[in-house]
């Protein structure tokens, strides 16, 4: 932090969260895979970008709403799926859901949530009757388990499914290994995993990851649900093309917040090529390293329809519960509207790739 300047709202909540969290839980939330290169690069890559504003466009105040599969959001900043919210705050996912609903944005609730999806959706709908919650899913090697989870998400009222595809195995996370943190402590459970086929009544099944999963499994899922299906964790343009051929409703460019393949690139660096391959056929979302309105606008200009934030939401939750998440989301939404205005944009789509330049590399030498 720069000496003499007060911390910004998100930075202040980050510091407060770090001071309050149990050290092993803090490391679980903060950490990444391997040498944490992808984790750091997600943030650094945004820092290397600058925005070229357009002037005198008569744009007026920007309309920040975005249309998404199964949702309309008041801001292009969504809540990315993260596990175990009750380790951050006793109110857990209910608090996150209420804050996301109040902000008019989409919560992608995790399969590894510590609150059952029906309770998460109910909490969001208490605040806003038309709140949108999407369900993040790891396709399970047992198809009957996947089917039961999908039925739960549908019955709860989720309006889309997000299949996380970047986890054929769990990433290697040195901090968790050092802390021996590999399971939820007693008293907490992955509530969505309770009473599934193959589990004894009342017990929870472990979330399985499998390198044997293929596009065939995704096709099978699509045949069994009417919900739109987005694929999360796409970084290769060829996978974006295949996904579209499979009929997905959207893509999320993500490296899992640097928690899976540490050699993965920063997500904002992967975005332009994905956007080019997709060519507007489905919405492209991005998560990883988004920490400011300028980051959001850079991603929108490079072809994203919206972005997700993971850790900043956990900082707000750990520091101040529902009010903290609300502060993080309000701050990012306000900053985004402000930067859009400064850039002369009418709305989130009124930006183009030429408005993003790489610091130190743009200018005379490029001509
Ligand atoms: C503590 C933590 C838990 C996460 N759990 C999940 C998960 O269960 N499913 C999933 O698809 N992604 C998970 N993610 C990845 C996020 O959805 C998202 O890709 C990432 O956090 C975005 O990066 P950011 O934290 O820099 O915003 C998790 C991330 C964190 C930090
Ligand atoms: O930690 C994660 O990134 C994650 O995706 C996860 C998945 C299953 C259980 C716990 C965490």
UniProtKB/TrEMBL annotation:
Glyoxylate binds at residues 138, 173, 256, 259. Residues 2-361 form the FMN hydroxy acid dehydrogenase domain. Coiled coil: none annotated. The keyword Flavoprotein applies. Its cofactor is FMN. PANTHER family: 2-HYDROXYACID OXIDASE 1, S -2-HYDROXY-ACID OXIDASE-RELATED. This is Putative dehydrogenase. It comes from Actinacidiphila reveromycinica.
């Amino acid at each position: 932090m720069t000496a003499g300047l007060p911390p910004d709202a998100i930075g202040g909540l980050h510091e407060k969260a770090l001071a309050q969290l149990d050290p092993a839980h803090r490391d679980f939330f903060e950490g990444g895979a391997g040498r944490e290169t992808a984790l750091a690069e997600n943030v650094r890559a945004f820092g290397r970008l600058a925005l070229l504003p357009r002037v005198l466009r008569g744009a007026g105040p920007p309309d920040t709403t975005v249309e998404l599969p199964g949702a309309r959001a008041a801001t292009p900043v969504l809540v990315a799926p993260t596990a175990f919210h009750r380790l951050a705050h006793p109110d857990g996912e209910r608090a996150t859901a209420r804050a996301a609903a109040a902000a008019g944005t989409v919560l992608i609730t995790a399969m590894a949530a510590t609150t059952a999806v029906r309770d998460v959706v109910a909490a969001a709908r208490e605040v806003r009757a038309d709140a949108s919650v999407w369900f993040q899913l790891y396709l399970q090697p047992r198809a009957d388990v996947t089917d039961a989870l999908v039925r739960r998400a549908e019955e709860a009222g989720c309006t889309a499914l997000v299949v996380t595809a970047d986890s054929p195995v769990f990433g290697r996370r040195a901090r968790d290994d050092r802390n021996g943190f590999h399971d939820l402590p007693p008293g907490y459970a992955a509530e969505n995993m309770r009473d599934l086929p193959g589990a004894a009544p009342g017990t929870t099944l472990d979330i399985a990851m499998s390198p044997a999963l293929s596009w065939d499994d995704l096709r099978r899922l699509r045949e069994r649900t009417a919900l739109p299906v987005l694929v999360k964790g796409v970084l290769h343009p060829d996978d974006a093309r295949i996904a579209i051929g499979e009929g997905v409703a959207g893509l999320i460019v993500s490296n899992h917040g640097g928690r899976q393949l540490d050699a993965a690139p920063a997500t904002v660096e992967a975005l332009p090529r994905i956007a080019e391959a997709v060519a507007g056929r489905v919405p492209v979302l991005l998560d990883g390293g988004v920490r400011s309105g300028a980051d959001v606008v850079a991603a929108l200009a490079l072809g994203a329809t919206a972005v997700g934030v993971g850790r900043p939401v956990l900082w707000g939750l750990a520091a101040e519960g529902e009010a903290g998440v609300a502060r993080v989301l309000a701050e990012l939404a306000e900053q985004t509207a402000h930067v859009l205005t400064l850039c002369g944009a009418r709305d989130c789509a009124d930006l183009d790739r030429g408005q993003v330049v790489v610091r130190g590399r743009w200018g005379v030498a490029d001509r």
